[in-house]
Amino acid sequence: MAKPSLLIPGCEQPPATMDLLYKPTNGVPYKVQTGDDWWKLAARPDVIAAGIDALGLCRFNFQTAKPPEINWYLRNKVGCTQATHDRKNYIFTSDADPGIVYLPSAKVASVAQSKLQLNSWFGLGLKFGSTVIVDGIEQMGGMLVSIQDLVNTEPQIRTIALNAQSTRLGLGVGASGGLCIIYVTSLKNAYELNSLTVGGMDFSLALGGNAGSLIKGAKATAKLKKLEPLVKVLVKIGARSPDALKKALSQPDKLGDLYKTIKSLKETLQSEPDEVEPSAMIADLPISGGTEVGIFHAVTEFRVLGQPTIDVAWPSE
Fold this sequence. Notes:
By secondary structure, the chain is of the alpha+beta class.
């Protein structure tokens, strides 16, 4: 029998449907060792060939990508008995009993290859920034959604909760706040964002509700122009904030509209073939508040807050 939970409240919960006898089809048993973690296992050549990341490997084993439910299975099925220092997750050790997780076999890899591997994400953020003569700072909180999961109609859509801070050096005065679109490519692991810094010369023009278009003159104007169909469908489904986007994903009709647009843009939204590291863009959307005109050098640092998943009900064709 599994020992009592070692985690702080909220970090472990039983799934609605428990299956301690579940073994993934074409899964190969692997005995965990001290020092292993989901990211190291996901970096194995056989797992990479299957197109499965760390969170996908959890889903492969436990039929869920929800961290509290994963922790429940780690204690009750894998037999993990040690936790991280912050007591939010269990860790693999050699003395876990039985200590077995499953890795995908070659057959799983062949199935995975039939799915699109995009490693691209889009999302919405809410931000507030100000510039006084030469110094400025901007804070943003938001959510990213896996384009790959949407295109492949996965039953659970991965998201990334994040915040970002931009420091500015330039000319300007004023304050602005509002909605922005976030687009990230070549992101294989959510926590790669924690080491991602985006910087360069740019400019911001926000004039309340009269902005009328995406930021003009931004370095990535051409690529952002291609995202206009995505912006339009976000407006259509009422996704005017990160929370509203999350709610839209749980509504089949709105999910269907978003899926059709993403599907039509899949070539535009996939990671660039020559990108070896994640690339991110943030652009103001028309729904904006405040007044600010500025020319500045901005450096943005991202921070991942969590990786919640959303259960979705795909509309019938």
